[in-house]
């Protein structure tokens, strides 16, 4: 079954920059792929289009929003579907900046998507704690973001993206700002999570090492406008994660 299908997708911004395409990509459910390419080639644009945060200028976008089905999520050119990326729509997004709310606890930060989805408080709290445990932060639910290291903030951001149990996890250079050791630990923990949870992951990175280490497929993009230059299957003998 397919998680994501992009057909002939292009993106021209209002300022005349053509960022993407034509771009064709299919991702199977449960696959872990990396998008690799020079800065400005349209990787973030591709992720935002998949997430429904940005509308393509042309082409067709289909995204499996819920477990078990690919819905015909055709995004009309020039029209962003309202609420497409809202909780419950099967997409989790992790950015390079953890973008946590500083005035409230780690648990409340992770619970936010469930609040927006009007999940009852006790249930939401339990699910937030479960998501925090899955990223190794069971003991930090009551802490405040400022008390955490960069790597821990990224873990909170990951827990927040996973708390709605999305089908698809989109990650835009999530670990780029972290030191090498923290980054390597996060790589390993992300792999273990992927194996356990069976999510579809699309991981944008500048790191060839990271793309090969993490993913089953490395999709290399051309410089702007971003097209697919190579789509490489990574074979491993060792089990992942
Ligand atoms: P990448 O993630 O590969 O670095 P982006 O998708 O962020 O690339 O950007 C691709 C190109 O589109 C860049 O030239 C960038 O400056 C431009 N761009 C990105 N977002 C916008 C926007 N909102 N408005 C205008 N141009 C944009
Ligand atoms: P990255 O390389 O990490 O993807 P970018 O610098 O491409 O980051 O983009 C960061 C943000 O700035 C994005 O949300 C993008 O939409 C916006 N952006 C990037 N380039 C432009 C631009 N030329 N005009 C307007 N917004 C832009």
Tag the structure with descriptive keywords.
241 residues; alpha/beta; 6-stranded mixed beta sheet; 4-stranded antiparallel beta sheet; 27% strand; globular; binds adenosine-5'-diphosphate; ABC transporter ATP-binding protein; ATP binding; nucleotide-binding
Short summary:
The chain has 241 residues and is an alpha/beta fold. The chain has helices spanning 43-51, 106-116, 121-134, 150-162, 180-197, 208-214; strands at residues 2-12, 18-28, 32-36, 58-66, 69-71, 91-94, 168-172, 200-205, 217-221, 228-233. α2 packs parallel to α4 (150-162).
Structure write-up:
- The protein is globular and about 45 Å long.
- The model is unreliable at 67-88 (pLDDT under 50).
- With 241 residues, it is of the alpha/beta class.
- The protein is built from 6 helices and 10 strands.
- The strands form 2 sheets. The chain has a 6-stranded mixed beta sheet, sandwiched between helices. The protein has a 4-stranded antiparallel beta sheet with strand order 2-1-4-5, with helices on one face.
- Helices cover 30% and strands 27% of the residues.
- The structure holds adenosine-5'-diphosphate (2 copies).
- One adenosine-5'-diphosphate is lined by residues 15, 39, 44, 173.
């Amino acid at each position: 079954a397919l998680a994501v299908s992009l057909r002939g997708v292009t993106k021209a911004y209002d300022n005349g920059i053509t960022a993407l395409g034509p771009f064709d990509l299919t991702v199977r459910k449960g696959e872990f792929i990396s998008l690799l390419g020079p800065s400005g080639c349209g990787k973030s644009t591709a992720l935002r289009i998949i997430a429904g945060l940005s509308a393509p200028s042309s082409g067709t976008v289909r995204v499996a929003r819920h477990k078990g089905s690919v819905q015909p999520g055709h995004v009309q050119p020039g029209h962003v579907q309202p609420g497409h990326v809202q909780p419950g729509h099967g997409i989790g997004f992790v950015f390079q900046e953890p973008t946590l709310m500083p005035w409230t606890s780690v648990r409340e930060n992770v619970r936010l998507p469930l609040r927006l989805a009007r999940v009852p408080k006790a249930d939401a709290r339990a699910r937030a704690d479960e998501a925090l445990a899955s990223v190794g932060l069971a003991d930090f639910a009551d802490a405040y973001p400022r008390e955490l290291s960069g790597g821990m903030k990224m873990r909170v951001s990951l827990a927040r993206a996973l708390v709605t149990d999305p089908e698809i996890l989109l990650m835009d250079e999530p670990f780029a700002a972290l030191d090498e050791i923290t980054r390597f630990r996060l790589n390993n923990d992300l792999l273990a999570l992927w194996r356990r949870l069976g999510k579809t992951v699309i991981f944008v990175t500048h790191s060839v090492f990271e793309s090969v280490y993490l993913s089953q497929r490395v999709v290399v993009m051309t410089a702007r406008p971003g097209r697919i230059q190579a789509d490489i299957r990574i074979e491993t003998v060792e089990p992942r994660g």
